[in-house]
User: Fold these one by one.
Assistant:
Number 1:
Amino acid sequence: MSRTIVICGHGPGISHAVAQRFAKEGFRVALVARNPERLASAVKSFEAEGVTAKAFPADLADAAAVTRVFDDIRDTFGPVTVVHWNVYGGGTGDLATGALDDLRRAVDLSTTNLFAAVQSALPSLRGQDGAALLVTGGGLAYYDEKVDAMAVSWGAMGLAVAKASQHKAVGVLRQRLTGEGIYVGEVVVLGIVKGTAFDHGNGQLEAGDIAERFWSLYRARDVGSVNFPG
């Protein structure tokens, strides 16, 4: 039976590398992001490699749009086997003065709409061998005074809060869904990934190596969260 991975928040870097890694194992690829042109280009690159792929443009900041896009994917490919949540929403730089709407969007993208994706995908995941939810986390999620000071100095306070919320969500979802045969796993990325929008000549991490870590987690299904590198 054909398996499908849904890449939520597709772009250059980790999400594309994860799509490639799973495609190598025979997965069909559903790419979800806001920009239709970039998605179409990515689909062409996959098709050139003999991979079945399709673009599903959607604004993942809109919970209703999340639900609709999973309906569209199910209508196109049938049941979903794996969901990879790799959505980045920025966030309020300064929690003391920043716009609350910006913080709300960051938390929605990291956590609230992750729940929307899970709820939309659950009917498929429950019936799939190898069902999984995979999440890309970030080191600012951790409670540590040095990490918190870093979030303040980088102007990334909202992002830190959003990622902390997401990290807790992964843990509780793992406890909730493991009994139903659905693996929940997270790779917490501790550094700048080469070739992404955050790489200003200071990228240290290879997206392909992170994708390999996701694949290892998926295959083993025994650990909920790991750091990369680490």
Number 2:
Amino acid sequence: QEQLQQSGPRLVKPSQTLSLTCAISGDSVSRSSAAWNWIRQSPSRGLEWLGRTYYRSKWYYDYAVSVKSRISINPDTSKNQFSLQLDSVTPEDTAIYYCAISYSSSSEAVYYYYAMDVWGQGTTVTVSS
């Protein structure tokens, strides 16, 4: 049974970097038929896919246009986890953040939120001074 366990600070000051980690059990971050995603939910934006990483002989990264200039998603094979970094946060980045797995038998894993197979528990992050 695959499980995702999120960790990271729940309060971040404006202009700082939001950092969250998603630990994987029952699966491997380097599995060749999975993509590892970050998604957030807020009243103003609804559910918003932020980005993903996946391994297909090498690591690939896809990011939403809305955050592309300030996001980084990084796999850590030694700890079997992946992380989210979002730079220069503002109060608009206040949301519930989720990590999620999407599985695909093809080399192009689907990344839209409704196609996610396993979700983390969610972390409420508030951006405030």
Number 3:
Amino acid sequence: MGIRIQQAEQRDRELVVSVMEEAFHDDPVSSWVFPDEAHRRAVHGRFLGVFVDVALAEGRIDIAEDEAAVALWLQVPAGAPEEEDPTPALMRQTADPDNERCELVGRLTGAIHPHDRAHAYLLMIGVRPDRQGEGIGVELIGAELERCDREGLPAYLEASSARSRVLYERLGFRFLGRAVDLPGGPPMYPMWREPQAR
């Protein structure tokens, strides 16, 4: 296929949020955080905007040339963080202050995130629903995984569904064995990928 990828800048923020909103509207985790669909539609962009802002400030966002997909990456150093991550509280405060699930999902994924080795963290990837199944997401991820392989760097992510877990396994990720259990919600699957010889 061979898609061209560009790196997002601050001016691309609303585009990235829009792609993420479309891609994650029916996602099991998003549906758990915001069970009421009308409410989800109203606040989901603010919730996802926090992830976009973090990636713009501290990482990188890749955009497929036709704006059908985006991938949010962070570079995580080895060693436990010295202070508590403010992002989960910000997710709640920004999107839906009365909804503890906004914060809980971030706290639970943060608690299980490995910190013993430096790695590339695929915070989120979203493909517009009308373009899913075309391999765009695989190519978007693949570009970063090639870099990881060249540099001997592992990669990490949390799959938000059994379907996405299978996709990531095809890319060399392996389930770490302990799911993130959202109370009364779907499991999330922490996955790790060792660098591969090319």
